[in-house]
Design brief:
Low-confidence stretches: 262-283, 321-334
Oligomer: single chain
Number of domains: 2
Shape: globular
Number of helices: 9
Distance between the termini: 41 Å
Strand content: 5-15%
Helix content: 25-40%
Largest sheet: 3 strands, antiparallel
Length: 334
């Protein structure tokens, strides 16, 4: 399925195939693939600290830095400085080759900034690159379903593909899963194994989420045709939720249950000083002003009974009055 716009009659421009937009951090897929190809693993470490490369000083979007972290952590939290350092470490050419191998055909400048997704790409090509990870073969050639009567139709879809080494494939799945489990892609979490990556460009002009679960690969882009900014928009927000809701429907899987409300814990040491007199309740007698009596049995159990005054006065008079019955609304009983 492909949706390239809201209304073809009003705008036949297909944003999935014709638009060339910056992919943001979804492009980090190729940076980390290049790193895995050079023998690194998700447990390898990188510095999440400010760095200057030439006249360029990348920054993390949240302004926070965690020091030495694993590549898994860097990918999950989408650290910009870690991606910039990693691009410099593996080499720009290696990153470009990883992108080309997975099917990216649009121009990619030989600059360190490409690690943060500054070059442009179509959503279809980007989604096909993620499909290559899912399929464990590359590249994947996107096309409409061929006529099954066509000779060699299956070979036309899969011919010429290169097998991805199992170790590298598993490592890439590790990174993509971490992004959804603990990272910026938590809004896309499913009740089945899911893999994906968020992307947000400068000034929030573009927001993306691309990923896969089971045998379905989906890419979502949100933005404006005039390239104007969208304050507050990020790949982990609306695009991730669109992706999650679509996948739940398409795969027929149940949504993740909402977490139970947290139980508020009371710190006894934090009680106000004026409450300290009543913090220890007397047993075997009444508590003044509380209206009940506490009694400890021989087995150590504590029972609560009425106060002496309540026993003397007896139960309150019974009120046999009933509240008036409500009249049914106009839609009830129909």
């Amino acid at each position: 399925a492909m949706i390239g716009g809201k209304n073809y009659a009003k705008s036949p421009f297909n944003r999935a195939t014709q638009a060339r937009r910056q992919p943001g951090s979804t492009f980090k897929l190729f940076v980390y693939l290049a790193a895995m190809r050079q023998g690194m693993t998700p447990d390898s470490t990188i510095e999440d600290r400010p760095v200057t490369i030439g006249d360029w000083t990348p920054k993390n979007s949240d302004g926070r830095y965690q020091g030495t972290i694993t590549l898994r952590q860097a990918f999950a939290r989408s650290s910009n400085v870690a991606a910039a350092r990693l691009t410099q470490q593996v080499g720009v050419k290696a990153v470009i080759k990883a992108a080309r191998d997975l099917g990216i055909s649009t121009p990619i400048p030989s600059e360190a900034t490409i690690g943060l997704g500054t070059s442009t790409v179509s959503l279809l090509e980007l989604t096909a690159a993620y499909a290559a990870i899912a399929r464990e073969q590359y590249p994947v050639q996107p096309r409409g379903l061929a006529d099954v009567r066509e000779k060699g139709w299956y070979q036309s879809l899969t011919g010429g593909a290169t097998e991805m080494p199992s170790k590298i494939h598993d490592e890439m799945l590790d990174l993509l899963a971490a992004s959804i489990r603990t990272g910026t892609g938590r809004g896309a979490n499913l009740t089945v194994d899911a893999f994906g990556k968020t992307g947000t460009t400068s000034d929030n002009k573009d927001a993306l989420f691309v990923g896969f679960a089971r045998d379905l690969v989906v890419g979502v882009w949100v933005g404006n045709d005039d390239n104007s900014s969208n304050p507050g928009l990020s790949g982990g927000g609306i695009p991730a939720r669109i992706w999650r809701d679509f996948m739940q429907s398409a795969l027929g899987i149940a949504p993740i249950a909402a977490p139970a409300p947290a139980v508020e814990e009371v710190d006894p040491d934090a009680l106000p000083a004026e409450d300290q007199e009543n913090s220890i309740l007397p047993l075997g007698g009444e508590i003044e002003g509380m209206g009940f009596n506490l009694k400890m049995g021989e087995d150590g159990t504590i029972s609560v009974g009425p106060s002496r005054r309540d026993r003397q006065e007896g139960p309150p008079p019974r009120d046999d009055r009933r509240p008036p019955e409500e009249e049914p609304g106009p839609d009830e009983g129909q």
